[in-house]
Amino acid sequence: MTATDPALTALSQGWCALSLLHGRIEAHIERALQAGHDLSVREYSLLEVLSRQHDGDGGHLQMKQVADAVVLSQSATTRLVTRLEDRGLLERYLCPTDRRGIYTNVTAAGLELLDEARPTNDAALREALDEAAGNPDLAPLVRVVETLRTPVPA
Questions:
Q1: pLDDT in the model for residue 77
Q2: Beta bridge pairs of residue 103
Q3: Which H or E run includes 105?
């Protein structure tokens, strides 16, 4: 195969369309969350991921797992956690069984903000998908997104 191979060109075009859809959705949600709740998409995602932790086996996430879930490097995730901790939305504590481990929990204020922001996030997502559905290049991807039913990790 060469760089001008039609299969590679089609693959590249598909990737560009997916990237465009993601960028448009993320930008739309970002504006809505910032305006309504003073939250970024990454901050919202972090609160969402951490809110699903529980006290059972495997219920608390290590920073690497959190970083993977919010698609950031560990250092960027640590900076994000620090920002939200400074705002009183998260708190860190040492793992009771392994003093080297540090866990992060969402505070009551963080859960309240997340509950307030969730409808904004969902509405902005719906608006962004509806807008993208009008673009013939993005409409097939929108249909795929609308039919996905991926389980949410614990």
A1: 93
A2: 93
A3: strand 102-106
Torsion of CA 89, 84, 126, 72, to 10 degrees: -140
Taking the C-alpha atoms of residue 133 and residue 7, their distance in angstroms, rounded to an integer, is 25
Query: Which pTM does this prediction carry?
Result: 0.85
Reported as type and span, the H/E element at residue 50 is helix 41-51
- Among 26, 100, 107, CA closest to 63: 100
**More reliable by pLDDT, 58 or 93:** 93
SS3 state at 94: strand
- Could you give the CA distance from residue 101 to residue 88 in angstroms, rounded to a whole number? 21
94 beta partners: 102
Question: What's the token pair of residue 1?
Answer: 């195969």
Q: Tokens 């608390």 map to which residue? A: 60
Closest CA to 46 of 109, 110, 3, 94: 110
Per-residue model confidence as pLDDT tens digits over 63-99: 888 899 899 999 999 999 999 999 999 998 887 777 7
Nearest to 77 by CA among 62, 89, 60: 62
